[in-house]
Structure formats: structure tokens, C-alpha cells
Model the fold of this input.
Amino acid sequence: MRRALARMDEQASQAWLRPALMSSVREALDRDWILDIDASVKPLYGKQEGALKGYNPHKPGRPSHVLHTYWVSPLRQVLDVQLTAGNQHASSHARAGLEQLLDELGEKAPALVRGDSGYGNEGILVALEQRQQPYLLRLRQTANVQRLVRRQFDRLDWSRTDSQGFQAVQDEVKLSGWSQPRRVVILRRRLREGIARETLDDHGQLRLDFADHHILDAARMWEYTVLVTNADYRLESIAQLYRDRCDCENGFDELKNQWGLSGFTTRDLNRSQTTARAGALIYNWWSWYCRAAHPGGRLEAITSRPLLLAAVGKAASHAGQTTLYLTSMHARMDTINQLLVNVRAALQHVRLTAEQFKDVDRWSTLLKYVCQKIAPRIDAQPACRTLPATG
Done:
């Protein structure tokens, strides 16, 4: 496999896998959806191209690659993944890919682009505003942002506390380096528990002092977050809308730990990029298969592969038809039978549709069927046709 991939140059690899990734998801983007952009670190332990020291919170000083990934948030599908050197963690290295992706999506553009503090900068904001693309991005805790937060704390129009204890207030500000003022949302939550301080006793031993209610009541401590957005969502919904971004971390966990994205590495960056996109494409295919089997919720690979792959298959042909019989070897036979019945219903729907309409796209039909099972869409009823008046 390594030798075969070495014969493919970077342009050929990109022309092959990027359209494949897009086509694996595009037909499901006919509803409002959110594009999450995030980066993940892939530690390296050999001499590979691009193995440089950069931002690595879990293994500081360890050379790494960076995976810039673009997610379809509600479905946890991958639109593209770009592999860069370990010192190219900043959002500026993902900007070109984001612009290209938004241009390719066209009328299927997301209802919102969401990202953490690494993406709330002038370059990303201008690129999104030029395309009139709504966004919700977090700002870094710079000195100017801290001064902004300090000015807001004495306001009396904070929103009601949500389910996670956050309050919100909005303002307009032009930070240093920005070309224009923008709407910002300040979130705050009072810390009432879970605070500890490291100290040393008289003998130099490390101690952990937990803050009790006397300390917490005497000094009111707050956790705060500042977001920049041009979307017209209600102020009370902004906090939960941003918190939902954390779901892409579960997708990174699946890709890196269960689909081998952090394990397969070659000496040159091109082959590693090819396998990263190929792994993301297989991840998308398996995710659709699992959602067809279980539309009510996601099945991660660590549980779905033993359920849906541990079976003995036998093909029987009769009267011009081939039937596949599957006999599961798993202990949860009842659960597996129901999952396979759901998969059969999805494939039967595609088959019947293809028989009626010969030019129908089977993959598009399958995705629309699965999405309708996940979140039923109620379209407007067509107007009733009436007979023409007779005079």
C-alpha cells in the first residue's frame, strides 16, 4: 500500500479524494446545518516529513502533525481533512481550505460556521463576511478582550441563567487589528464548586487546598467567554449553540483512536495526507451505514463494528435473484436482527425508487432516506388542484 500511494502525486490525490468526501455528504445538506472547524494534534515518533515541534498540549515538545478538519456538526460527518506540519496549528493554515470548501458548497452552504478561539481573527472573519456567511467564533483572552469584559460586569441587563449557569450580554466592539466593529456576546458563570489551589506546607510537601463555601462566598469568582458573531440568533441560545461545538471532539476520538488516523504515518507528507482523507471517507461511509441501522442515535465504531461485522454471510442465487443470508455470531442477536432489518428497509427503499425512476441517483436517495429517519422534515403541503369552472 505504501508503494502504491507513492506513485500518486499530491494533485492526483486531491482530485480523487476531495470530491469523494464531498459527494459522500453533499446530498444530505438540504437542511440547515452547522460547519465546525477544528484542529487536532497527531504526535509522531519517527523521522517523518513535517514532524516539527508546535502546539502539543498532551505531549509538550513532541514532534507532530496537525489535522485541520471540517465537520458537518449535526451528523458528525467529515467534509475534508488537511494534514499540515506540526508548527502549522494556527487558523491561517486552514483559511484557504475553508474558503475553497464554502465556494464548492454553493447553495448548500451552512447556516453557521463555528470555531474555537484559534479562528476568531480578522482573516477568518473577513473571509466569512465576504461570502455573507453567518459565524460564531470564540475570541482569545487578550488584554483588549479583558478590558471589554471588565466594562460589562456592572451592567444590569444580563440574560437569565441557562441550564449550565451561564448568563449573556451583547455589545459591539472594534478590537485592535479589526477592520470594522462587530457584535460580541459575553458569557459568564459564577464558580461555586470544583476549585482547588496547590500550596506547599512547612516541610515542602505539595498540598491541595479545596475552596469551601466561605472562600467562594467571600470572593465571587467568575468564568467568562467572549464570542464574536454576525448571526441573528437569540441571545439566550448563544451559549448552548457554542457548547454544542464540543461534539466534534468525539469525532476526533473516533477517527484517531478507532479508525487509525493517528497510527498510519509515512515518511512523506503526501501519503499521510492521502490516508487521512481515505480514513475520513471510510468513516463517513460507516457512519451512514450505522445511522441506517440505528437512526435514533450514533453508534461508535468500538461498539458498532462487533455488532454489525461479526456475522457469517451466504449468498444464494435463484430465479435471477441473489439473496444474502447473514448469521450473526454475537450474543446480542435480538439487537443485531433489528439493526439489520433497518438496513434492509433502507436498501429496499433505494431499490424500489430506482426501479420507478431509472435515472435516479441511488446514493442521494439513500442519504435522503436516512436523514428523514433521523430528523423528519415536514414540507409545506401543495395546494389542492380544483376543477376549472364550467361557465
